[in-house]
Design brief:
single chain; mainly beta; SH3 type barrels; six-stranded antiparallel β-sheet; 2 helices; 11% helix; globular
Length: 91
């Protein structure tokens, strides 16, 4: 069973996966050190896995413990913006 947690949505995250960690693939190491932001955190088997989005819109999963987080970052992602609100005429 897994559970979604979104309080960290939008928080800036920089992944620092440990070298040679079998939990990661070449893609994880390619995005290591790049700034992204958290879309959501899922708990699976007692471990927290973060879905991290990057500027090129690539999504890569990392263990939450392997992320450098900036709690001062604006919360929310482009998924949270309502396009109808942005297009609505103002009075």
């Amino acid at each position: 069973m897994h559970r979604h947690r979104t309080p960290l949505r939008g928080v800036r995250a920089i992944p620092h996966p440990k070298a040679g960690d079998a939990n990661y693939t070449a893609v994880n190491y390619e995005y290591a050190g790049r700034e992204g932001h958290i879309h959501e955190v899922v708990e699976i088997g007692g471990r927290s896995l973060a879905k991290v989005g990057f500027a090129d819109r690539k999504i890569v999963y990392y263990l939450l413990d392997d992320l450098e987080l900036d709690d001062r970052a604006k919360r929310g992602t482009f998924h949270d913006a309502d396009p109808l609100d942005e297009a609505a005429p103002t009075a």
